[in-house]
Recover the amino acids of this structure.
């Protein structure tokens, strides 16, 4: 029986991520990502890469965002559009339980899109030009206990299909490595 795990895009392709400048955070996430992928490959888990909603909407040279900026009908519709083929794949694998075991979905906590249990929020908007208090605005970003918009849309779609009891959702989160490592 093949074990299937759906993973956030940047777990397999870090080139899709927003450029980060905090080396300690980069190193902690990379260490966990490598541990997770090594365990998955050694365990024979098949990985299905989710699309990256930020990359498919804004490309590689985008600014960092917060979930508030994505919490709108346009971004949510984009997420639904790119998630529909993924949901169809999940349903196909689940329909053939004699051949496949769907282990679930792994997101990236802290992400404004792919956070499962934690996302970042702030009151960010407008132009940088002529802005005063930019550092205070940037410093207002906080980690909050809720899902990023892409993961929330995925959860909604899973619930609409009544699959919430069949598909577990966890996350890659350096302070809590057991979350994703226990999925395998």
């Amino acid at each position: 029986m093949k074990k299937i795990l759906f993973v956030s895009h940047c777990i397999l392709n870090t080139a899709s991520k927003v450029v980060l400048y905090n080396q300690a955070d980069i190193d902690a996430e990379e260490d966990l990502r490598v541990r997770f992928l090594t365990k998955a490959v050694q365990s024979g888990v098949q990985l299905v890469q989710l699309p990256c909603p930020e990359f498919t909407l804004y490309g590689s040279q985008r600014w960092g965002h917060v979930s508030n900026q994505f919490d709108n009908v346009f971004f949510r519709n984009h997420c639904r559009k790119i998630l529909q083929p993924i949901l169809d794949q999940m349903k196909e694998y689940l329909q053939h339980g004699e051949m496949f075991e769907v282990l679930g979905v792994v997101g990236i906590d802290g992400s404004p899109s792919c956070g499962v249990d934690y996302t970042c929020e702030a009151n960010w908007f407008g132009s940088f030009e002529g802005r005063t208090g930019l550092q205070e605005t940037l410093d207002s970003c906080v980690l909050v206990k809720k899902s990023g918009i892409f993961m929330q849309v995925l959860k909604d779609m899973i619930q609409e299909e009544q699959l919430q009891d069949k598909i577990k959702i966890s996350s890659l989160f350096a302070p809590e490595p057991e979350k994703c490592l226990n999925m395998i």
User: Anything to note?
Assistant: The chain has one domain: 2-119+146-181. Residues 62 and 129 are 17 Å apart (CA to CA). Residues 2-119+146-181 form a domain with the Rossmann fold fold (CATH 3.40.50).
